[in-house]
User: What shape does this take?
Amino acid sequence: MRKLTKVEIITRPDKLDELKEALNAIGVAGMTVTQVFGCGLTKGHKEIYRGKEFNINLVPKVKLETVICEIPVDLVVETAKRVCQTGEVGDGKIFVYGLENAVRIRTGETGDIAIIDPA
Ligand SMILES: Nc1ncnc2c1ncn2[C@@H]1O[C@H](COP(=O)(O)OP(=O)(O)OP(=O)(O)O)[C@@H](O)[C@H]1O
Ligand SMILES: [Mg+2]
Assistant: This one.
């Protein structure tokens, strides 16, 4: 089976719509989106949330996870960077994981065919 990779993109909530559309445009089909709170390396820097400034931030973000096998990982990463980069602190992080397996529950298919559209 082809290698499965999970790409996790944590970024600003207001980028979600554009990110979702851009990923759809390169062929990403499945994704999971979660509303999260987080902070990164720039704890001493200030990100503003609802008009207040915090020194230690737990700032609302969205986490978008997608598992891919046919689409190049670099294409997904570059697409997310292009959409989410503003240059300001808090643009987010992208994490890339090798994935052991996937199962489509309805059919019992496993591995790469579990996430490929048969059409
Ligand atoms: N090391 C990490 N582990 C897990 N989640 C992280 C990590 N770094 C960042 N995140 C998540 O990514 C979100 C965005 O991080 P952020 O863009 O602020 O990173 P940063 O390293 O501080 O970079 P910047 O200088 O651009 O702010 C965080 O709110 C958090 O949810
Ligand atoms: Mg930061």
Observations:
- The chain has a mean pLDDT of 91.
